[in-house]
Inverse folding.
């Protein structure tokens, strides 16, 4: 589908309700007519994805999402398809009642679902049970239907939101539909792009239903999707000093790999110079494996001081540990006041000794680290990733990347971007170390702290997707380095992901 001018914009449920009211006013139409447009868009999506389909079953809930389903049944029947319709309730309120009446007026039968029911035969199930308003676990009978749909061998098309998924947060308080395709209406919902949502929505399409651009323009989005970007071409009159000096600090005994990955990704992302401050025992191996890294053995703050003076950006935390050596280097590095990317044990030490940052700083926690920084649990962070990342950015006065499926980037003023790339193959050791080095390299090359975080997250995730073309299982962090270099240079075939 062609990209809508506002397809990057993501909204809260409250904003979406206001946009729907504004759309009805601007278009001069009724609620049932907007439902009919939604049903027509759903039929178009159905035809695109399953062109040979002859038989479908539509599952309708008690509200307006169910109304969309009833009208899809009317249109599908008119198109010559065989339609079965299952409903959770014997009646529908408001605009959905008119949609239900339209289905029944044409001779359509409604099967009521109860605990003893079985799914009708179908080639496709359509989920029109719950829309954007559900923020709790579905009722037991509805949950049973959702599980039956998920357990069937048929694909699922979800209307607006996979039922059971919180459209605000991306969490699933209970049973939730796993759709192959979700066609969402009017505008983008932020909760469809992060957390559990990425396993529930399948292919996501936006159907704006003819809502005027003025409705979108009048509502500032709560968040935005990242766009694919590369760094601009370099000036011919340049030298290594033009692109900054990253100092990677970490690598406690047994963790030399973390600093090597962070340092090498900083080089591949374009830093002019990269030094590594680590345990002396690791220097020989680092020099042998990647001589472009300037590896230094440091036994404490005094040995670190001259390296800090030469560096323009610090990457602090990969393999650092939380014992006396790592803690001393951590304190010394923070006191240097240099632009900083803080990850791994650097974040765990911050959770023990909180501080707000005055210099440009990017924190890159996964949910467990975020939970420690907020004094809560990883489950609570995942329940509302948007609130968690915004609170982290506010509390620590830093740009924060909350990693995971649908990584989020927030700044202390509440601005928030969502990463639409990445894959499960990236759930392996060393991936976070790569991101640390990439963001540090972008800071070193002159990017602002927000730009460095957003561009770094995007390059990292897109490199992961390129590397996973040979399969997600068994993907190594080092596999991202070649596509990372190509993407950072905007090479043909990589920039239009």
């Amino acid at each position: 589908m062609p990209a809508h001018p506002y397809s990057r914009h993501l909204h809260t449920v409250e904003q979406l309700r206001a946009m729907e009211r504004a759309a009805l006013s601007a278009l001069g139409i009724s609620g049932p007519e907007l439902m009919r447009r939604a049903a027509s868009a759903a039929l178009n999506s159905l035809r695109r994805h399953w062109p040979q389909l002859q038989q479908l079953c539509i599952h309708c809930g008690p509200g307006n999402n169910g109304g969309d389903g009833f009208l899809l049944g009317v249109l599908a029947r008119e198109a010559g398809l065989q339609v079965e319709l299952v409903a959770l309730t014997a009646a529908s309120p408001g605009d959905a009642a008119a949609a239900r009446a339209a289905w029944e007026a044409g001779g359509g039968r409604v099967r009521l679902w109860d605990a003893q029911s079985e799914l009708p035969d179908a080639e496709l199930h359509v989920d029109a049970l719950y829309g954007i308003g559900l923020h709790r676990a579905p009722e037991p009978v509805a949950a049973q239907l959702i599980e039956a749909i998920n357990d069937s061998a048929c694909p699922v098309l979800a209307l607006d939101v996979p039922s059971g998924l919180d459209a605000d947060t991306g969490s699933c308080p209970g049973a939730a539909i796993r759709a192959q395709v979700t066609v969402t209406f009017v505008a983008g919902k932020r909760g469809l792009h992060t957390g559990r949502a990425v396993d529930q929505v399948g292919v996501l399409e936006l159907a704006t239903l003819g809502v005027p651009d003025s409705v979108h323009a009048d509502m500032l989005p709560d968040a935005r999707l990242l766009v694919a970007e590369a760094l601009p071409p370099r000036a011919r009159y340049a030298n290594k000093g033009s692109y900054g000096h990253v100092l990677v600090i970490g690598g406690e005994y047994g963790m030399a790999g973390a600093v090597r990955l962070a340092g090498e990704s900083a080089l591949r992302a374009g830093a002019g110079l990269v030094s590594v401050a680590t345990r002396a025992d690791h220097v020989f191996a680092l020099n042998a494996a990647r001589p472009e890294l300037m590896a230094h053995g440091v036994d404490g703050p005094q040995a670190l001081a001259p390296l800090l003076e030469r560096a323009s950006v610090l990457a602090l935390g990969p393999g650092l540990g939380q014992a006396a050596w790592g803690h001393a280097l951590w304190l010394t590095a923070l006191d240097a006041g240099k632009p900083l990317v803080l990850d791994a044990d650097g974040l765990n030490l911050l959770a023990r000794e909180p501080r707000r940052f005055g210099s440009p700083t990017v924190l890159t926690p996964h949910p467990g680290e975020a939970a420690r920084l907020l004094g809560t649990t990883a489950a609570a962070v995942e329940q509302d990733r948007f609130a968690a990342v915004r609170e982290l950015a506010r509390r620590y006065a830093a740009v924060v990347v909350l990693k995971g499926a649908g990584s989020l980037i927030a700044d202390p003023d509440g601005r928030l971007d969502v990463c639409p790339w990445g894959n499960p193959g990236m759930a392996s050791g060393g991936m976070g170390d790569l991101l640390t080095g990439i963001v540090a390299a972008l800071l070193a090359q002159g990017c602002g702290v927000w730009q460095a975080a957003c561009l770094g997250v995007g390059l990292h995730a897109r490199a992961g997707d390129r590397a996973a073309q040979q399969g997600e299982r068994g993907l190594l962090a080092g596999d991202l380095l070649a596509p990372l270099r190509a993407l950072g240079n905007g090479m043909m075939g990589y920039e239009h992901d």
The first strand starts at residue 9 and ends at 11. The CA atoms of residues 17 and 178 lie 24 Å apart. Residues 31-49 form the longest helix (19 residues).
